[in-house]
Amino acid sequence: MQLDATDLKILDYLQTDGRISNQELADKVFLSPSSCLRRVRMLEEAGVIHHYCAVIDTEKVGLEVDAFVQVTMRRDVEQWHENFSQALQQWPEVTGSYIITGDANYLLRVRARNLKHYSSFVLERLYKTAGVLDIRSNIVLQTLKDTQQIDTALLEE
Short name of one Pfam family for this protein (predicted)? Predict the structure, then answer.
């Protein structure tokens, strides 16, 4: 899909405030409300806008531990990737999972109430998953930047 400058402005505003009214968005991007709504729907239907969500302050809801975990798998276990992928879908502690390059197979972002909860997750679920060979945890001490927003300047040529 080819995005023009107006589409990029719409995306910028929606990333900042997904609850902005169509009228306010239309005013900001200099479109009629019907044209603006048509463009937003086109962006949604094309999958450019995947979904809308609220961003939760994890500390305020009691999730004290944020960790990045590298998981290395044993390749001699049959269907290790499929089994691991299926298992991690059942773990609410895992808020992000990625197949990566390097020594490990996966990088997980794990959120937990406290260190005891995190430890229980690692020992009782992660290590007990068939095929897991090694786990390397990195506990976040301080977050400097954490966003899902895409700077639309990256999309311009």
Answer: HTH_24
